Amino acid sequence: MRMLFWEAIEYHATRAFLERLKRSGIILSEISTHFQIAKDRKEESSIYDAKVVEVDIYGVNEKYCLIGKVSLYITLTEIEKLKEEVEILRKYAPEKLRPKIILGLYGVKIFKDAEEEARKNNIWLIRVDYERDEDDEENLRSRQTEEEEIVPLTEILQNL
To answer: What ranges do the domains of the chain cover?
Structure first.
């Protein structure tokens, strides 16, 4: 079965986050992709107007919570969206959070200003290179070529 290009990226992102956490001794007991919560309809968001917030990768154990997003381009806007989504979770679903929250972004292109902002905000960044096989336009396959932690997990854990 062939995965669409974006599905492949999300799959690799989830695997990358979980494998690196496991190497650091953190096993998440509950993991889901496309975790959603609804916001109060009367409230407006400064970043976007969606009534539902979707987190691409969510995982928890008793001590840690991973909130991850996947994007082709990691920009300052992606950093702000992630921070805002955590605040929405704090307000509307605090039971889904844990004492130590690990925020992560996984992308193909990470802009320098976003890297600096991620460091300031203790956000884990993983950059990945992909090659696309465009022989079949409907089912774009991908082959992961390299992953690199731009802001490493060890740095994030030290600052929690």
So the answer is: 5-158
Q: Which is it for the CA torsion 118, 38, 51, 17, positive or negative? A: positive
Q: Are strands 141-151 and 100-110 parallel, antiparallel or unpaired?
A: unpaired
> Which residues 6+ apart lie within 8 Å of 45 measured at CB?
39, 84, 88
| pTM of the predicted protein model | 0.82
Which regions of 8-137 does DSSP assign to beta strands (E)? 30-38, 52-60, 64-74, 100-110, 123-133
- Report pLDDT digits (tens) over 83-131: 999 998 888 889 999 999 999 999 989 999 999 999 999 999 999 886 6
* CB distance 84 to 46 below 8 Å: yes
Tokens for 55, please give them.
Answer: 């987190």
CATH of domain 5-158: 3.40.1350.10
